[in-house]
Specification:
Low-confidence stretches: 11-29, 315-323
Strand content: 35-45%
Number of helices: 4
Structural class: mainly beta
Strand order of the largest sheet: 2-11-10-4-8
Distance between the termini: 96 Å
Radius of gyration: 30 Å
Shape: elongated
Largest sheet: 5 strands, mixed
CATH architecture of the largest domain: Sandwich
Length: 339
């Protein structure tokens, strides 16, 4: 029997080529070095309140998770602090996140991520983590609504890695945030502060909305309280009742006025704030404490998306109460608040 060396040589060569080709295409096998991560869209434009999404691509997949450091930059291009010590820096209580202007970064801070688990981050930044074999990923940054009218704002961030991270990236990205012009009217009642211990828990203020005299909506359990008239809501006459429900047994000596304000906000158009503190002396209590004067009313006329607000400079409102037979009575309000 003759052995065909030509066929054997061809078979061995084919097997060798197939082995190497299959090895290179097998994503389950680790490759040497660290893959480069590229940002496909380094500049994103959004409207206030929207999420800016950056799309990233990994040079090749690896069998390890990928971490990306995210720093928010100041006007000079330097990373800004994202945490501050809880109490004394030497107390060992750890660090709490700092509120960042214009944006919210929805990823753990360097401290929450495990401090030095990703290499030294220098006390700033956030860390986004992705599963092994990830080839495409996203960085999502939420933008905040600024009620005032503003020109377009630009926020710059830096994506980078440290010595312990398994891929490499070093790129600045930017978010252009355009002004939000809302068609809605927001009414917000605020009484937070340091005049008594935890006023949000110990005092109760309410908002109620009436349309053409009929009870329509309420806000009873938040701090601040808030009611929204939508631009798509029907035109006509609206009224907002702002009331003090109870002081919860809290009094001061001498008697103080609760530092409460009401704001009427059409984002990107106007913000009007009215001081109501003179209407609500703390020791006088609220409606549920027997003080029937602990309420004031604002009238709002809506035509399309144009709102005319009659504030506390109106004589009737400045008196602190408004008589209307269609208002909820005390028992109806107690029942509604108990639900």
């Amino acid at each position: 029997m003759k052995f065909n060396y030509i066929k054997l040589t061809s078979l061995l060569l084919f097997s060798f080529l197939c082995f190497n080709s299959c090895k290179n295409d097998d994503d389950s096998l680790e490759r040497n070095g660290k893959p480069v991560i590229t940002v496909i869209n380094p500049s994103v434009t959004v409207t206030e309140g929207e999420t800016a999404t950056f799309n990233l691509k990994v040079e090749y997949p690896i069998a390890k998770k990928i971490d990306i450091r995210i720093d928010v930059l100041d006007d000079s291009g330097n990373p800004i602090p994202t945490t501050e010590p809880i109490g004394d820096p030497n107390s060992g209580n750890g660090y709490a996140g700092i509120d960042i202007e214009n944006i919210t970064v929805p990823y753990p801070t360097w401290f929450d991520s495990g401090a030095f688990a990703f290499g030294y981050l220098g006390g700033s930044g956030y860390v986004a983590t992705y599963d092994p074999y990830t080839e495409e990923m996203q960085i999502n940054i939420d933008t905040k609504i600024d009620d005032n009218s503003n020109p377009t704002k630009t926020v710059k961030l830096r994506l980078s890695t440290t010595s312990l991270m398994t891929a490499t990236i070093q790129q600045d990205i930017e978010i252009n945030i355009e002004n939000l012009v809302s068609t809605d009217l927001v009414t917000r009642l605020k009484w937070d502060g340091d005049y008594i211990n935890d006023p949000c828990s110990n005092l109760d203020f309410d908002l109620e909305l009436y349309y053409n005299g009929a009870f329509t909506d309420f806000s009873y359990s938040d701090c601040p309280e808030e009611i929204v008239i939508l631009g798509t809501d029907p035109d006509g006459s609206y009224e907002i009742d702002a009331s003090f429900w109870t002081n919860g047994g809290n009094t001061t000596n001498p008697n103080i006025n609760v530092p409460i304000t009401i704001e009427f906000i059409k984002s990107g158009v106007f913000v009007e704030s009215v001081d109501l503190s003179s209407l609500f002396p703390l020791n006088d209590g609220g409606l549920n404490d027997g003080n029937g004067s602990a309420i004031t009313t604002f009238s709002i006329n809506k035509t399309g998306t144009v709102y005319t607000v009659i504030d506390s400079n109106n004589n009737q409102v400045a008196q602190g109460r408004m008589s209307n037979n269609n208002r909820l009575n005390l028992e109806e309000k107690r029942l509604l608040k108990s639900k």
